[in-house]
TrEMBL record, chains A, B:
It comes from Actinomadura napierensis. InterPro entries: DNA-bd_HTH_TetR-type_CS (IPR023772), Homeodomain-like_sf (IPR009057), HTH-type_TetR-like_transc_reg (IPR050109), HTH_TetR (IPR001647), MftR_C (IPR041347). Residues 36-55 bind DNA. Residues 13-73 form the HTH tetR-type domain. This is TetR family transcriptional regulator. The keyword Transcription applies. Keywords: DNA-binding, Transcription, Transcription regulation.
DNA sequence: GTGCATTTTTGCAATAGATGCAACTTTGCA
DNA sequence: TGCAAAGTTGCATCTATTGCAAAAATGCAC
């Protein structure tokens, strides 16, 4: 299974990285629309046709790194810690995913985020990754709690991802300040765990709000 | 503001509907990829170029109806009922949106769902609409609870939408049986309101699960 | 009704993403 | 070394999408 050996593998990795890297750099310099597949291919020193051997579309190249990282995180998620409750495992997983997404941007992290925010198509792709994550969390839950009600598993995963989205939205608006992100994350986790009933402001008749 | 009058308006509506309707029909008959803009335009009896005057892209035409319906729902959401708590308003809103999406499919509802499920690009667009809804709910919350903490508002909206997603996922897997959907919806709402701590299976150490 | 201003529709041309195919190269292995 | 598998490339093609300017339809004032 180990593919560390082999010139082929190494070369493929290198080419993949070269393409992704060239693409991000060009996107940063000229903008997304203004960069063509031909440009990227030229910068990575491959034929335009080769691009599609590595990425199914121009949009996907933006997520090359993210995808790699999510794959790593997915492995960690499956790690059971004895004595931990499933709830604690979820908390750990959610935090891990968020930190992977938010803090560990690579060389062109800022560029990626800016791109994703301004291109609806890219936003959509990003959301799709979030949904995939949701399904993974659901799977994790069902592993951890054999016999758990399906609806419970799906809903719990949905609610957890909803909390993650909240943090991401918060960061979009207020930047990626680690401290502020931490606060938002804690608050979101609390709401995910204890539900909307724990949000005081939501549980008074609205007429009572402005005395 | 009323645009009921005017031949122009009526004609535009009719054309828009003709294009959307023709598109859905063709998608159903031949498939999405196999239908070109030119085909749709021909079937709707307009010039290909005209298509783009009504829809920004081929993908968007699939959501023509959904968008109309979501716009209607958005209005209802803003309706305050005296004595209701914000929480109750949210519950009402979430249920309204879900029922709009799930039960009121138009003529080609089943086709739409099938299309969306098999085309990643369409899935992405659908998710984007969910995100838009999330932002609307957040706005609603901030209106209802002036001074609510921003993180609370964002997280609450996120969690609520997460619950909605859960129901949608459930329906995808088990069909759109109203009864089963109702059950899933109730369960999801409970989890949204009371949090993951209310899911019994999640709060035992996982080792204790298999005696 | 007639004529003008505005809005819509349309045709034409050009760009660029995406795909299938077949020839050509490189790499892995006997 | 030499064959088979895997990877790369060029070419042709299809189609979505956009800009532009001419043509047609509509609303309104006279």
């Amino acid at each position: 299974m180990d593919e560390r050996t082999g010139l082929r593998e190494r070369k493929k990795r290198r080419t993949r990285h070269a393409i992704a890297s060239a693409a991000l750099r060009l996107f940063a310099e000229r903008g997304y629309e203004e960069t063509t597949i031909a440009d990227i291919a030229a910068a990575a020193d491959v034929a335009p046709r080769t691009f599609f051997g590595y990425f199914p579309s121009k949009e996907d190249v933006v997520f090359a790194e993210v995808d790699d990282r999510l794959a790593e995180v997915a492995e960690r998620l499956a790690t059971r810690v004895s004595g931990e409750s499933p709830m604690q495992t979820i908390r750990r997983s959610v935090v891990a995913v968020l930190e992977a997404i938010v803090s560990e941007h690579g060389e062109y992290g800022a560029v990626q985020i800016a791109l994703i925010l301004e291109r609806p198509g890219l936003q959509a792709r990003a959301l799709q990754r979030l949904t995939d994550t949701q399904e993974k969390i659901e799977g994790l839950l069902r592993d951890l709690c054999p016999g758990i009600d399906e609806i419970d598993a799906v809903a719990a995963a949905g609610v957890a991802v909803g909390g993650m989205q909240a943090v991401i939205v918060h960061c979009r608006r207020h930047g990626y300040d680690p401290l502020s992100m931490r606060t938002a994350l804690d608050r979101a986790v609390t709401i995910v765990e204890n539900g909307l009933v724990s949000v005081d402001a939501l549980n008074r008749p609205w007429d009572a709000a402005s005395p």
